């Protein structure tokens, strides 16, 4: 999208507002599918990245399945028209009862711990399941998004394979898939390929596999010149290894991935208006009409989002610290070089498609912003801005017989 188009969205829908570019989502999906030359490829979009139903419908129209981590995400996928067999459900730490509820919906079950695996196998040995393996490989941009290491809560340790196989044998359950996810923002495809070899070795223990799921974690660029995962190189190397494995296995399996951020991050821009320019003895602050309640990633992960002044793009650059209106430290970027900012200007935050609205909250009793999809050259509202009624809709007000004055008199 152009800066002019982004400004038109801010003018029509107000600020703050999330904007997603359907064309970018589509091109990312096609880039990924074109990189892997296998007979059977399945992409499951990680719903947790951005769960708006219109986004799920768009991806479904492209032939994309869904990766879900909750009963509610499965229901969203079904509401969006995704076939249940194209939805994989990979929860962590949920009850057996929730898993059984998802079974009723028809999604593919993926189990990541021995306790639930044994319970599920004893109660439902006829239902095929996938198993999530922890390969004990450290990968990911930071500790919060690295999930394949030895201290991770995710997956069944590769060193517990004898125990896992004993459960499968004792329950008579059927294993139709094997899965891993090492972390997000993977830079070194060598690490990914190393973990893949561990998964291939584990797969040899199961004779009824239909698919091998390698998770995702592919890195996107966050700033100009930034490093990203070389999908084409990974595709070339993993395709050859996967096809050779299928020949040795004696069966054509499906190669599966679960990208979230890779598909939607770069599609998104978050637009906010500058409320005030505040000069202190050491810093020039640009205070905007939003906060970490709407874009928590910089404060939570230390993540970088490029910030541009789309109202005054040709002006001389100055240095600003861009901060929000939350009553806590609420910094989006410190000492950033941005075209001169004036009160009332619209700032655009890039890479706002993933884990931005989906992690938004009503902290400070602020409304969550609307979402807009730019599709076929037009802006389409896909979520309305919240109102005060939304804040209070599920609250139950109590009535107190004693007035504050009567309480004070008793004291």
TrEMBL record:
Modification type N6-(pyridoxal phosphate)lysine: residues: 48
This protein's pathway: Amino-acid biosynthesis; L-lysine biosynthesis via DAP pathway; L-lysine from DL-2,6-diaminopimelate: step 1/1
Positions with a binding annotation for substrate: 297, 301, 328, 355
Positions of the Orn/DAP/Arg decarboxylase 2 C-terminal domain: 18-353
Keywords (A to Z) from UniProt: Amino-acid biosynthesis, Decarboxylase, Lyase, Lysine biosynthesis, Pyridoxal phosphate
Sample GO molecular function, one term: pyridoxal phosphate binding
Name used for this protein in its record: Diaminopimelate decarboxylase
